[in-house]
Write a structure and sequence with these properties.
This protein has eleven helices and nine strands. It starts with 10 loop residues before the first strand and ends with a helix. Strands 1, 2, 3, 4, 5, 6, 7, 8 and 9 form a nine-stranded mixed β-sheet that branches. Helix 9 packs antiparallel against helix 10. By secondary structure, it is an alpha/beta fold. It is 43% helix and 19% strand. The radius of gyration is 18 Å and the shape is globular. It has one domain: Alpha-Beta Complex (Spore Coat Polysaccharide Biosynthesis Protein SpsA, Chain A), CATH 3.90.550. It comes from Massilia yuzhufengensis. This is Glycosyltransferase, GT2 family. Keywords: Transferase.
C-alpha cells in the first residue's frame, strides 16, 4: 500500500461528536500521536453547545468538520463515510481513543501483508480494552474469525478497532440508519458474509464504558435490537443463530431481573 496522492490519504478517521468536550481531548491526542500520519480526520458534529467545536478548531492537521448533522449516530457515521477520501475508513468516537502511537501503522502493515501474500482483505479488526470507573479491564480473548461464531454471539468485533476499505461500503452498504444500538453488528454480519477479515490479536483502541454511552445507557433495548439484527442474517448460519437464541434468552432474563421497571415499560 503506497503513499496516497495529494488529497487521497490512506486513512479517513471519522469521529462523531455531540457535547464531547469532557472526553474528546484523549481522542484527538491519540490520533495526533500516530506514527502513520497519512490520514484525514473527519468530525461529524450533532450541534454541540459546549467547547467541542473550539477544541476541533484548535486541533492541527488534516481535518474536516461536518456541522449540525442530525438523525442519530448511524446517520452521523454514514455522513463520515460519504465524506471520506481515504482508502481505509475507521470510526473512532469521541468517547474512545487509540491504544498507542503504532495503531495505524500496524493496521496499514496488516493490509499490506495480506496483499503481498495474495490474500487481499477488505477489512481488518483488532481488540479493545474497556475503561470503566477509571479502571482498565484486560483485553478479552480473541478467537480466530468465524462467521458462525459471529452469528452466534460467541465472538465480538468492537467498532473502534475496525478498519474498512471504503470500496467495501459500496459492496455491502453502510450502517442501517434505522438502528440505534446494533448497527455495527449488522454491518459486520453483512461484511463477514462476503469478505473474510484479517485479525490483529492486540488492543488497538480503548472504549469508555460510562453512563452516557449509548450501548450502556439502555442495555435491555440494545439486546432486543441485537436479536432483531441477528435474526435478519439467520439464514446464513441457522444453527449458530439457534445457539445465539439460547444465550439471548438467558441474558434477557438477567437484564429484566436487574431492571423490571424498564422491562414492563417496553
Amino acid at each position: 500500500m503506497r503513499t496516497s496522492p495529494p488529497g487521497k490519504p490512506i486513512f479517513s478517521i471519522v469521529t462523531c461528536t455531540w457535547n464531547s468536550a469532557a472526553t474528546l481531548a484523549d481522542t484527538l491526542a491519540s490520533v495526533q500521536a500516530q506514527t502513520c500520519q497519512d490520514i484525514e480526520h473527519i468530525f461529524v458534529d450533532g450541534g454541540s453547545t459546549d467547547a467541542t467545536l473550539e477544541m476541533i478548531a484548535a486541533y492541527p492537521g488534516n481535518k474536516r468538520l461536518l456541522r449540525d448533522v442530525q438523525g442519530g449516530i448511524s446517520r452521523a457515521m454514514n455522513q463520515g463515510i460519504e465524506a471520506a477520501r481515504g482508502e481505509i475508513v475507521a470510526h473512532l468516537h469521541s468517547d474512545d481513543y487509540y491504544k498507542g502511537p503504532e495503531v495505524l501503522a500496524t493496521v496499514r502493515r496488516a493490509f499490506e501483508q495480506q496483499q503481498a501474500a495474495g490474500r487481499p482483505v477488505e477489512w481488518v479488526y483488532g481488540n479493545i480494552q474497556v475503561l470503566k470507573d477509571g479502571k482498565m479491564a484486560p483485553p478479552y480473548a480473541m478467537p480466530a474469525f468465524s462467521y458462525r461464531a459471529l452469528v452466534s454471539g460467541r465472538s465480538a468485533i468492537a467498532h473502534p478497532a475496525v478498519f474498512v476499505r471504503r470500496a467495501a461500503f459500496e459492496r455491502v452498504g453502510m450502517f442501517d440508519e434505522q438502528l440505534k444500538y446494533a448497527m455495527d453488528i449488522d454491518l459486520w454480519l453483512r461484511l463477514g458474509a462476503v469478505a473474510l477479515p484479517a485479525m490483529i490479536d492486540q488492543p488497538l483502541a480503548v472504549f469508555r464504558d460510562h453512563a452516557g454511552s449509548v450501548s450502556s445507557s439502555n442495555r435491555l433495548k440494545a439486546r432486543q435490537e441485537e436479536f432483531t439484527v441477528r435474526r435478519r442474517h439467520m439464514d446464513k448460519a441457522p444453527l449458530a443463530f439457534g445457539i445465539y437464541c439460547l444465550r439471548y434468552l438467558k441474558r434477557l432474563r438477567a437484564l429484566q431481573a436487574e431492571a423490571p421497571a424498564v422491562a414492563s415499560a417496553s
